[in-house]
Structure formats: C-alpha cells, structure tokens
Amino acid sequence: MTDRQEVAGNKTMVNVVLPSHILSRIPQLQPGQVALVGAGPGDPGLLTLNALMLIQQADVLVCDRLVSDEIAALKPAKAELINAGKSCKEHVLTQQETNEVLVKKAKEGKRVVRLKGGDPYIFGRGGEEVEFLMDYQIESIVVPGITAASGCSAYAGFPLTHRDFAQSVTFATGHIKHDGKLELDWSALASDDRTVVFYMGLNNAQLICDNLQAQGRSADTPVGLIERGTTLQQRTVFTTLSQLPQAIKDNGLKPPTMMVVGEVVSIAQKNEKKAAQNAEQRNEKSALAQA
Ligand SMILES: C[S@@+](CC[C@H](N)C(=O)[O-])C[C@H]1O[C@@H](n2cnc3c(N)ncnc32)[C@H](O)[C@@H]1O
User: What gap in Å lies between CA 131 and CA 138, rounded to an integer?
Assistant: First the structure.
C-alpha cells in the first residue's frame, strides 16, 4: 500500500500508492452526475478515500457551512466553488436554491460534488436532495461520511456504547424544522442504559434537560458537550444533566456543538486520569533506569 516512508522533522511522511483492485472500485463521476459526499466532522484526516477521490473529480463543488476551507481546498484548481452554507437562521442559499443549483449544474454536463458535513444521510438533508435530483432524472451517488457523533465522541475520549453502561445509542435532533416544538419520545430517551446524542441541541438545552429528568433520567447523568469536534478549535465541556443549560451559558458554547448524554461520557475523565497515572509511572521508571 505504501511505496516509501520518509522522515521529515519528527513526522513520518507516507506516500500512498493504491493497488489497482482498490483503485478500480473508486466511483468515477460522469458529466451530468451529482455525488452527495460526506466530508466528516472537520478533521481532513477523517475524509474517506472515496470522498477525497470524488472531490478531486469535481467540476463544481457545492459546500455546506460545516465543510472546512481546508477540505474545500482539495478540489481541482479550476473547479467552481459554490457556498451553500447555512447557519441556524442565515442561509447563503435556501434548500430550494441549493437543489436547483445541483440540477442546473448537472444539466450543464458538469460533474457535481455536493459536499456535506458529517454524513449526508444523518440530519444532512441528503434524502431530500436525492429525491429532488430523481424528480429531474439526474443520476446521483451517495458517499457516507463519519458523522459528528462518532467523530466527536472519539476525539473527546469516550465511546458511544459500552457493554457495562450503554446497550444502545440514539441520534436525536435537538431542533425541529421552522423552529417547531421539539417532541421526542422522552420516556424512551430517559432509560439509563442508553446514550443519547443530540445534534443541533444548544437552543433546546433547557427543554432537553427538563424532559429527560421528568421521565426519570438522573440529574447526575454525565453530559459531554463538544464544540467544533475533531477540528483544531475543538472545545470539550463535561457537565451533568441538571447543569446542562448553565454549562452552555458559562462556556459560551456555539454551534456546531454535539451534546452527548449518558454514563459513557464519564469514561473520558476516568481514562484521562489513568493515562496521567501511566505517564507518571513511565517517567518514574525511566528516571530509575537512568539513575
Ligand atoms: C445539520 S446537522 C449536520 C450533521 C451531519 N450531517 C453529521 O452527520 O454529522 C448540524 C449539527 O451537527 C453537529 N455537528 C456537526 N459537525 C460538528 C462538529 N464538528 N462538532 C460538533 N458538532 C457537530 C452539531 O450539533 C450541528 O448543530
């Protein structure tokens, strides 16, 4: 898989050469086709191979706000970049306009890559875009990405499931279309052996905190808040369910932030302590060896 490794500074540089049986399976984007591609949660290293190879085939790249500039910069120099980014209330393009741009560019015979943060089919409107393209007989392919829940939990140091603490994990939206009332199956989400990950949950933190506790989830349930997870700007805040709204305020957390509720979150702090103890023991051993 690799043809050469060289050491530059203290970094090992690996030049990757893909064997032909893998290369032959990389999707080839045809003129007039659209690829909906998951870009992962932010760290460019979390792009899939297919995502990278498709970005490099694009004539037009239509990007979400959650896609970082460094990932968008992987496009061919001559490819057109369209920013369809949206933050909570401010849309550069509306969803309808984005759908129309995809159709228009495909009809012009362009190879279109629609790049979305995380996974296109998890709270990413990928389903709506594929349906729209089908209505206009535009062929599309979908490349899954690492969703923010997986990226953020791993980079914050805890798993989403664990045989001792969480037998299931639920991905829930914390925000309803047109700012509608958030109505979830709170009693199911309140069960102790379940991890609940809230996407877009910041504005409804009080409601989430109240409803889960009203259905019996303990006030002490650990909560992890991960802002801009997997990026160089990642911030992680650990709190409890009853303290959740205050922790968001105190730390001035802004979107994109992932909210993870469940016992698994406590593993991060336990592991951090263990890692510090292990490092101390290693240092003591090496000091003794040198003495
Ligand atoms: C519209 S959803 C898009 C989710 C995306 N399709 C995915 O699979 O990750 C946007 C929400 O995902 C979460 N999110 C996405 N990227 C994130 C990141 N890097 N760090 C923290 N949360 C993130 C936040 O809750 C944000 O409000």
Answer: 10
